[in-house]
Amino acid sequence: MFTFTLNPTTAFLRQAVGSFVQMGFREGVICVAPDDVTLVARMPGVGVPVLALRMKPWMFSSFSCAKSVCLAFDLTLFYQNLFKVLKGDLLQLSGSASAYCIHFDLLNYSEKLETRQVFATQFPMLSTYIGRMNVPQLRNHYQVAVGIPAEDFRLLIMKLRQFGVLVYASITATAVEFTVGNEVVIFKKPNQCTIMGAVGEDPVVLVFNLIHSGAILNASILSNKVLLFGQTRGSSVVLKFFFGRLGSFEYYFR
């Protein structure tokens, strides 16, 4: 059984879930453990990234989890109901492996500062996983990481997508060169980007696609900084967006 309450991070949650829906994901899986809450979606297909929203339980208004569980549910219904959350509302989600639904409750405070329920609904569970699901992880040992201010990243994506969908990021110790077709955009450190990891004169080349550029831009709106990771193990390329107090939103390109 788990229960957690969000406030005032619901706007970030709605923005993140909107990116899932925008990419065509209809089923999401929420994985809750005593130290972690992750919403993940994936589907088969070339060029379709795995999406993961990693939330920070210690930043919630309240949180309890007796046993790790992963519950699959309808993302579209969830997204539609997130628009019912008004300023000042608390969003409470709860569920368990033995239940057949996830409870969605909106709470508010009365004039006497007593918590009251203002809206309640349920989402039927599509499937249940006991324990932890195999959710992608950013490993501690990655080959390279590039940090770019979110506004600059948005301008970059809007420009590059005019020339194609396959992006090559060639990274050295001093600069990163983004190439789509014949179009090239260069970011130099330290003023335009940060570069960390095992890079030198020989460039490290990371490849990702802009098939879902609209969803990527949507995810960047509430973020101040975007990180581009190249991993020595696991997923080859990851885009990570920081969502304030809620956590982070990650695209894993396969």
TrEMBL record:
UniProt GO cellular component terms: PCNA complex
InterPro entries according to UniProt:
Pr_cel_nuc_antig
Coiled coil location = none
What Gene3D superfamilies does the database record attribute to this sequence? 3.70.10.10
Q: Which GO terms describe its molecular function?
A: DNA binding; DNA polymerase processivity factor activity
Specify the domain of life of the species encoding this protein.
Answer: Eukaryota
One biological process term in Gene Ontology:
mismatch repair
Q: What is this protein called?
A: Uncharacterized protein
